[in-house]
Amino acid sequence: MDRRTWAQDVLRCHLCETPGPPMYCDICHIHLCKACVGEHLSDESKEHKVVTLKNRGFIPECSKHSKKLCELYCEQCNIPICVQCVSSGEHIGHKQVEILKTLQSKKDSLQRDLDELEKLIYPKYQEIVSNIPVQKADLHQNSKKLTTALDKHGEDLHREIDIAIKKLKSDRDEMESKHLVVLDKQENEIKRSISEIEQSIADLKKSLNSNDVSLVSTYKSRVAEFRILPPKLTVSLPRFIPQKINKKKIYQQIGSLSALSIKTEEHGYTLDSSGAESSPPDRPLIDVPRIITEINTEYGESNELYCVSCLSDDELWTRGQDNMMRLYNLHGKLVKSIQTKSGNMPWDIAVTQSGELVYTDANDRTVNIVKNTQIQTVIRLRGWYPLYVCSSSAGDLLVVMITDDKKQAKVVHYSGSTEKQTIQYDDKGQPLYSSDDYPKYIRENKNLDICVADHRASTVVVVNQAGKLRFTYTGPPSTTKELFIPLGITTDSQSRILTTDYNNNCIHILDQDGQFLRYIDNCHLDYPWDLCVDTRDNLFVAEWKTGKVKKIQYSM
After folding, report:
1. pLDDT of residue 275
2. 460: β partners
3. What pLDDT sits at residue 277?
4. Which backbone phi and psi does 286 adopt, to 5 degrees?
5. What is the dihedral of CA 460, 317, 538, 352, to 10 degrees?
6. C-alpha span between 397 and 400 (Å, rounded)
7. Measuring CA to CA, which residue among 327, 337, 360, 519 is closest to residue 439?
8. Beta partners for 75?
9. What are 511-532's pLDDT values in tens digits?
10. Backbone angles phi, psi at 267, to 5 degrees
11. pTM of the predicted model, to two decimals?
12. DSSP letters of 37-71?
């Protein structure tokens, strides 16, 4: 058959032209029937990789070694590798799995994401956005009601002002009338006196011009009477004394609109339960935990390592005894350094849900957040020292603090700079936490419990979201180990609690209800201090004296 017509024909074996061949060589890029597989593999002039047609093209060529197929996947480096990569020694100590298993696992994860997006998240977004036009209509209707109420109130106020002005005008008219009565009376009295004076003048002139003895002798003088002048009226004319217009009081008299409240609730909407589709993949504990890699840092005996916090699966924030916070990748390369705002040593560090670094500055009494390269103080305390901090799933901060006199300790829940909740006492009024400045690392569990590793009390204290004590853990029921002394604490995707035991160089793993599950005591831990987990539940343990961070696999 002419091979040029194959595209118009059914798929055929490259060697015998049998239709519908089920096999494929990923290196030679040819189709094969089962009968011809042996003949094809017998050609030893080059390498072959025969797979089922379904798996064709799944196995990529190695980017480092030409013509080599990557049959394995390095979980540490997150890359496909070939046999030659393994033999080169580049991946010694790294976990290697079959690439097809990795592919299937990743596709399962993609399917879960697709199912959750299609069945839960997308419908919920549609439901939320469909409610916005309703809210807009309510807003418009409310504005119309407000306008009507304001107009009516304005009319009432204008009416009261008109009444008050009319009253003042009426008072003015009454005072004017009273004043006129007094003036009219005085005017009449004075005019009468003037008339009498005029008559006296005329009588005097007549007597002076007459020689009539009778007339002259009967004259009686009234000059003394007229010397007494009429009283002088002094009237204070009314004046209008306007009050200074006080706009503030006017607004108070008028009333006010209640403040517009736009509250953004990060978790105001909730997704319906989708069972296994939205639950994290099951990651049971493995029988023998193992070290995946050791990350060497510049910390050590001269600058002990106290804190570690995952920024991502590939990078870790750390802090020691100086005033610097350092970001390392998994190869021990220093990616970034940030100095504290005050120059003091940071007491604790955490990473928010959005990837921003948070640190406490006990000496400065502040909690600070690093946004890009700028450091912002979000909390400043008086009478209390902020010590340990973590970021909640809602993006809020949980801060462990003690009083200046070290007689009280509490956990405070902040939203931004606003205090939302204080956790300090149990139901019997007893303090939940020791009140000294010894370590009290804090984490929020996936079930929203708040977990504190109280070093001085040798206790892990767990309260629920409402701040009610759920349980305390002081070590397993029976053990041959030394006294349990916790330091760092973290939680994983299964809501398990992991805490370092500084006194026994090991890690305790508990379930979410405080039941002891197992130790991690086979990884040669040397003074383990703080710890954290990445998104795959890989554990990172910071060793205090050596300055190393050990990446440990403890679950599937």
Report:
1. 41
2. 453, 473
3. 40
4. -90, 160
5. 70
6. 10
7. 360
8. none
9. 999 999 999 999 999 999 999 9
10. -120, 35
11. 0.55
12. HHHHHT-TTS---EEEGGGTT-SPBPSSSTT-B--
